[in-house]
TrEMBL record:
SUPFAM superfamilies: Glutamine synthetase/guanido kinase (SSF55931). One of its GO terms (biological process) is glutamine biosynthetic process. It comes from Xanthomarina gelatinilytica. One of its GO terms (molecular function) is glutamine synthetase activity. This is Glutamine synthetase type III, GlnN. InterPro entries: Gln-synt_C (IPR040577), Gln_synt_N (IPR008147), Gln_synth/guanido_kin_cat_dom (IPR014746), Gln_synth_cat_dom (IPR008146), Gln_synth_gly_rich_site (IPR027303), GS_Type-3 (IPR052725), GSIII_N (IPR022147). Gene3D superfamilies: 1.20.120.1560, Glutamine synthetase/guanido kinase, catalytic domain. Residues 84-173 form the GS beta-grasp domain. Belongs to the glutamine synthetase family.
Length: 728
């Protein structure tokens, strides 16, 4: 082992876990740093409290005078917690969160000062936003951006800063962030679902989408991570030969959590408690040093904020413990990747989970309605669903052998499949009394039982029904959940609107009873969306063939997948529902394509550097050692030397071959990048990066990894896979 690696590993092994003392019960500190309902009651005037609650529940506007009262209360609370600054906290399209801190402190002359935080500062801010991606919106409209308070996600204190969740929009109204379209989509599904719920219960006034995410990640010693320029700069290893032992023994999954990692998790969980992120489960994942953390589910907007905040907090807490968190979907080739399952459901203000079993036949018909409409929505928009999770990093995971395929399909389990089969045979038009009774008793009536027992899990499905929710499993671990959540809620809202129209139409024109009309429409939906249902092994080759026959898309790369975001159909749905207008859709597409290009460009540069500046020089050094050896043998044995130097000479040749291949491929890659950089059209540019530049990564890597196996371990400068994965 090289001395460099040896010291990094020794240092890492010598690090002691930071023991985390939990002095208080978690339930006592939960939400301690959140300006939630309790705190509002305490710190706000009655009028201000009522007004905020009305804004949260009914989306009413808060007037300026009341905003002043609210900001004053918020400031008092924050100061009581030692806070000095405030920030508008938002989620620009860079994928990170953004904040700019301003002090409460304000000098008022004569050497005196006060702490000030007015309603205006709470409600709206103008960050210098010119350097956030906007996909040409600003150029087109010369608009400046501003952030505006989102009262539905409570303010919180992190460190000594009061953070106010906000949306980020252009002055001309276009969304420049993830939250704005999500809020619009949630409004759309609320409206559409309430209308459909009224068939079953007139008391339903509001429907909330819920989200429970599960965050997977790798935890790597900070020193070791820093020893790899690829991990430092791209979040993943761009080369590295597989470790002799990987995950094949399955000895990590659900195993004992190593102590240093455990202390990290405890520390992280404490921070989450204070911030009101209700984390509940933690466990080892399949790969070594891979873990998962999941909260109790929450209203989707809040859950999205929590996930974005969590990713920040994870980074910060990791620093304290000398770890680096790898969120990348595929940090190590040949080792399990990371995802972020999005569990999704809908629930009413009357406390009913619309994707859960009900108590009466009517409420179970309601379940079927939402269940089948969701399937139909995914069926009709499978390409858009695929696009909602597309990213350069997720491309490594989708379609790779231990991850969901790039084909979107829905898994519902055997028993629900049987239910749909029976429903498919419902008579066209009016139902006989016998048929109605039969449906109620033998089909709808059995649903509670079936759902209770829906343990049939298919781990290979990208979108699975799991008893009382759908689980969107193909979401990447680096993703902002707002992206898939916006798409899912929008397409389901769109579908529910369509459904309502069709049912009403049958009632009005054919004189069908409400439940007859519903059964009839659902029957048609089942027939039309059958193609998306798949119960088999999603990882198998057979499925790729079958899916192709069924006409399902299989977009393996981001540039290909993203096109669905700007199809006529998508633009229309988003426009009709007021989620994104055409300009917004187009600009988002451009941003995501550009991000893809930048991503591959950076990886290409880093790989080129490592190959030329680390790998090749090391190989040359080793080759020189071999040459010296051969020369020595020749000195001793004269013309007989070949008998003893044969292996060495073969190695010398092999090394030269690999060096030659690395150099020529790196040169090729640089040239392909140059060519791609000259392309103006973003579609063609992304295509060039995807199909001309990226494939060379594999070539270069192949020869580097071969050299890793040939070259003396003493000389190899890069921390190896086994050292990254098994040191903790
Ligand atoms: P796994 O997928 O790891 O087996 P589970 O099936 O237990 O885990 O999924 C649990 C996740 O589903 C939790 O994070 C939980 O918060 C979430 N969840 C449970 N019910 C709902 C719901 N109604 N809406 C959204 N998410 C939910
Ligand atoms: Mg899951």
């Amino acid at each position: 082992m090289s001395t460099l690696r040896f010291h990094a590993i020794k240092k890492s092994l010598n690090k002691k876990p930071i023991k985390i003392e939990e002095k208080e019960r978690r339930s006592n500190i939960f939400c301690a740093n959140v300006f939630n309902e309790d705190k509002m009651r305490q710190y706000l005037t009655k009028e201000a409290f009522v007004s905020v609650m009305d804004a949260i529940v009914n989306g009413t506007k808060i007037d300026r005078v009341v905003a002043d009262h609210i900001s004053t209360g918020m400031k008092e609370w924050a100061i009581s917690k030692g806070v000095t600054h405030y920030t508008h906290w938002f989620q620009p399209l860079t994928g990170a969160t953004a904040e700019k801190h301003d002090a409460f402190f304000e000098p008022i002359g004569n050497g005196r000062a006060i702490e000030k935080f007015g309603g205006g500062q709470l409600v709206q801010q103008e960050p210098d936003a010119s350097s956030f991606p906007n996909g040409g919106i600003r150029n087109t409209f010369e608009a400046r951006g501003y952030t505006a308070w989102d009262p539905t996600s409570p303010a919180f204190v992190y460190g000594t800063t009061l953070c106010i969740p906000t949306v980020f929009v252009a002055y001309t109204g276009e969304a420049l962030d993830y939250k704005t379209p999500l809020l619009r989509a949630l409004q759309a599904i609320d409206n559409a679902a309430v209308e459909v719920c009224k068939y079953f219960d007139k008391n339903v006034k509001k429907v909330n989408a819920s989200l429970g995410w599960e965050q997977e990640y790798f935890l790597i010693d900070r020193g070791l991570a820093a020893s790899r320029p690829d991990i430092q700069l791209t979040g993943r290893t761009l080369l590295g030969h597989s470790s002799a032992k990987g995950q094949q023994l399955d000895d990590h999954y659900f195993g004992t959590i190593p102590n240093r990692a455990m202390q990290y998790m405890r520390d992280l969980e404490t921070e989450c408690m204070l911030l009101g992120i209700p984390v509940k489960t933690r466990h080892n994942e399949v790969a070594p040093n891979q873990f998962e953390l999941a909260p109790v589910y929450d209203e989707a907007n809040l859950a999205v904020d929590h996930n974005s905040l969590l990713m920040d907090v994870m980074d910060k807490v990791a620093e304290r413990h000398d770890f680096k968190v790898l969120f990348h979907e595929k940090p190590f080739a040949g080792v399990n990747g990371s995802g972020k399952h999005n569990n999704w459901s809908l629930s009413t203000n009357t406390g009913v989970n619309l994707l859960g079993p009900g108590k009466t036949p009517m409420s179970n018909l309601q379940f079927l309605t939402f269940f089948i409409n969701t399937i139909k929505a995914v069926h009709d928009n499978e390409e858009l669903v695929r696009a909602s999770i597309a990213s350069a990093s997720n491309d490594h995971r989708l379609g790779a052998n231990e991850a969901p395929p790039a084909i979107i399909s829905v898994f519902i389990g055997e028993q629900l499949t049987n239910v749909l089969d029976e429903l498919q045979n419902v008579t066209n038009g009016k139902l006989s009394p016998e048929e109605k009774t039969d449906l109620k008793l033998n089909v709808v009536g059995k649903i509670p039982e079936i759902l209770l027992d829906n343990t049939d899990r298919n781990r290979t499905s990208p979108f699975a029904f799991t008893g009382n929710k759908f689980e969107f499993r193909a979401v990447g671990s680096t993703a902002n959940c707002a992206n898939p959540m916006t798409v899912l809620n929008t397409i389901v809202a769109n579908q529910l609107i369509e459904f309502k129209k069709e049912v009403d139409n049958l009632i009005d024109t054919k004189g069908l009873k409400k439940d007859e009309a519903i059964f009839n429409i659902l029957r048609e939906y089942i027939k039309k969306s059958k193609n998306i249902l798949f119960e088999g092994n999603g990882y198998g080759e057979a499925w790729e063939k079958e899916a192709k026959k069924r006409g399902l898309s299989n977009h393996k790369t981001t540039p290909e997948a993203l096109k669905a975001k700007v199809s006529k159909k998508t633009i229309k749905i988003f426009e009709d529902l007021g989620v994104l207008n055409k300009v917004e859709s187009l600009s988002r597409y451009e941003i995501e394509m550009e991000e893809y290009v930048l991503h591959i460009q950076i990886e290409g540069r880093v790989l080129g550097d490592i190959a030329r500046n680390h790998v090749v020089p090391t190989a040359v050094r080793y080759q020189n050692m071999l040459i010296e050896n051969v020369k020595g043998l020749k000195e001793i044995y004269g013309n007989d030397f070949k008998k003893f130097a044969k292996q060495q000479m073969t190695l010398i040749e092999e090394i030269s071959g690999h060096i030659e291949s690395i150099n020529s491929n790196v040169t090729k890659m640089i040239n392909e990048r140059k060519t791609a950089n000259h392309i103006e059209d973003i579609d063609k540019k992304a295509d060039a990066y995807c199909n001309k530049v990226k494939p060379l990564f594999n070539e270069i890597r192949y020869h580097c990894d071969k050299l890793e196996l040939l070259v003396d371990d003493e000389l190899w400068p890069l921390t190896k896979y086994r050292e990254l994965l098994f040191t903790n």
